[in-house]
Here is the input.
Amino acid sequence: MRNKKKKSEENGLDPNAWMVTFSDLLTLMMTFFVMLLTMSSVQSTEVKEAFSFFDSFYYEEGDPESQSIDSYGVLDSQGFSPQKNTQSGDLMGLPFKQISARTIAKDADELEALLIELAHNAETKFTDFSEEEANELKNIAITNDPRGITVDLPDSLLFKQGDAAINPHSIAILKILGNLVQKTPYIVKIEGHSDNVKVKSSVFPSNWELSVSRATNIMRYFIENKFVATSKRISAYGYSEFQPLVSNDSLENRKKNRRIEVILKKPKI
Here is the structure.
């Protein structure tokens, strides 16, 4: 035994080197069991708060299911819970839940019901609507998929021919859309589209300027009336004649292509 020890010492090997590896193993095991103990005492609300940052948010005002959910969301840089501020469209601090395809479909159905009611009452409650415009309300198309909601508005409901100023009586339509935008976290994209007939206006040299100006004016209405809390959440685009729904080969088809699309997109976090 002495010969072996003497021999290892002569070769430059420390006979106690195994203790370093053994102590590392003990440290790792202790860390592992401390972690297990910590995880067993974590509250479910803390887990929700930690992971809520990575989910999409949704708030349903007046929904009993939402009210029963603990208020958890993104904390500010100082670690305080944000304050509730529904008047400005700010959702931080409200009860949130993940936005799902089912929720999107529910919002689309609610929006469609409100617009149908508006169309039904247009001539009696909103005297500014002509009979033709009241019928045009029925041509508003609402589609939805897991990514969000698209509202297709005929341009004649919102604007006069060749003009970008919003018709005063069409504000009723924008208010319905704005109220949904205010209480939800959708990202709002507004698109202006035209047909292939050259615009006859000294203000707009082409359909590019007309489609952009129309989309921008609707965006400005949402911002100025505080339906969105920040302009980072809304954008406006003009596509002129280059994204038609159908071919511009008839009066009826060109009418379909002259439209405003309000797209409510599911937020990505």
User: Anything to note?
Assistant: The two ends are 67 Å apart (CA to CA).
